[in-house]
């Protein structure tokens, strides 16, 4: 007989009794959550040492080394913020655009001045005939004239306004890597909380959310470019207001469209420029990007990360990131090697690479020494299922509402139906969330909208159902990242949930996670097929195939997080960290569940 414990008093502060062995204390979850909302958080080193002194963390020399490096970076950021306040990039861009329009109007006036326009056309025809004669039957490359005009115009702008101002030298960021459960995210979040009030522009993204944000921005730019419009609607308002005839306006509009086409060939830098700070809106100051779980899971990730991160680093953004692997080891399958190596070189140039070398998974240690084993019911027999249903009824009663189906908005204009929902509590089957073509965007929508999620009928996963396993890992990542409370009914224990095989690699169907039914949503598929960002063309197929070793690496991370999500320390943070409560500003009295402990026995 084996006794498994569960507890539904997750959100009731003070009802959770932390019975943890002092010898093994958690160093990976977020026990400092009370400090995250503080406007003046102490530095990461002070936060770390204080938690060790309080007995909430076990001292780890690797973690302290990282905390010290983050503390030093924080000190350099104050001066860097002042320097970036004086970096007038937006003013330069505004002046350059003003001069560019003046040049265009001068060209338009010259080229469309009555009989001169005719003579210019005649002269062009004569030159074209002579050129054609010299080239004989060779074809002239289309667009060459516009390209030359564009380059000449840019050269004139360089002399009138100057080249793009060089940003003040940024302090080196940090790339923190190490085993699952070693405390990487905890340390990065300590640093992020301490930057409040020091750095004006700061963002924290998990890998999946960042990739979706990049893809969404790319799609918007691409859709605006390829969308068919009438001449009237396609001509910018500044052109329509000019006192030129329509022929001159059409010429100006054509030059504008050509400039946009040139920019679309460099779409990633354009996305990067608005990723953290809209410099064109006149925003000044330093920018910090905290990036959790950098991965190189497929061609799109490699191309997008290389383009976006390289641009951000080159323009002065300070990067603090975490990963399970050293930069050079991210791309185990050798996809787009040339692009990847440039990305690694950029990381190593702008970041200190630092290892959290502990072999200890602190999440597992705290869970093994907690009195309660919470919210995970197994196997799928009568007793476990009965207790799972009992927990569902208890939580719903405490939520004080009617269980109905609900629809939540997803990125790219899609929606996802939630079969059972009640005041921030949702219930799904495993197949509903992981057996259909859904992905990170859907899971983020679920996680943001629901503080408590029930998932039933979770099977044992292997490479045989790899697509479902990958989706489940992504789902756990997002529920964990948004600090959701999770209840599960599963076929086996957490440690036995993922069972790798030697069956070889399978297509990674998670690569379809960005595919939607919206108009023109083929960018991700094109990237996977071609290794670059294109504006069109038929997809050649999926080339993203991860090794079994990579899959097992992700499995271990998911297991570690599932274990942590049952610990009292994690559950204490749900009310203060989950966006549902932050968004709704619900009082603790209305949101918390009553304290109760449910026990059930499972026969082996």
TrEMBL record:
SUPFAM superfamilies: P-loop containing nucleoside triphosphate hydrolases. Keywords: ATP-binding, Coiled coil, Nucleotide-binding. The keyword Ligase does not apply. It comes from the Eukaryota. It holds the Pfam family AFG1_ATPase. One of its GO terms (molecular function) is ATP hydrolysis activity. One of its GO terms (cellular component) is mitochondrion. InterPro entries: ATPase_AFG1-like, P-loop_NTPase. Transmembrane segments: none annotated. Residues 63-109 form a coiled coil. Belongs to the AFG1 ATPase family. This is AAA+ ATPase domain-containing protein. It comes from Gossypium tomentosum.
